[in-house]
Design brief:
- The chain is built from three helices and no strands.
- The protein is an all-alpha fold.
- The protein has a domain of 63 residues.
- Helix 1 packs across helix 2 and helix 2 runs antiparallel to helix 3.
- It is extended.
- It starts with 13 loop residues before the first helix and ends in a 7-residue tail after the last helix.
């Protein structure tokens, strides 16, 4: 069965490549898998940023501001949820 995933060529600055390689080594995963995972986790934020950019480009400042506030509210909710979870190895 053919894969539904698309390939994309990227050219990274050395500092970005080094950071990805460090994380990949720490996680014992291939660097490409780390990048795919990171981008996958960021997909909702990327879509929100696209919406904000479209509104801004169209001159819809109030719609862009509302979309940004929604995005920031979602981020704060995630932070609050994460703070309630115990860290691994703590009681």
């Amino acid at each position: 069965m053919p894969s539904t995933r698309r390939r994309m060529a990227l050219t990274l600055p050395p500092s970005t490549e080094a950071a990805i390689n460090e994380l990949a080594e720490a996680l014992e995963k291939p660097a490409a898998s780390v990048v795919v995972d990171l981008l996958g986790e960021m997909a909702p934020q990327l879509l929100d940023l696209a919406k904000i950019a479209r509104h801004t480009k169209a001159g819809k400042k109030s719609a862009a501001k509302r979309a940004l506030q929604h995005m920031m509210g979602d981020a704060m909710a995630e932070i609050m949820t994460a703070q309630q979870l115990p860290l691994k190895g703590t009681k």
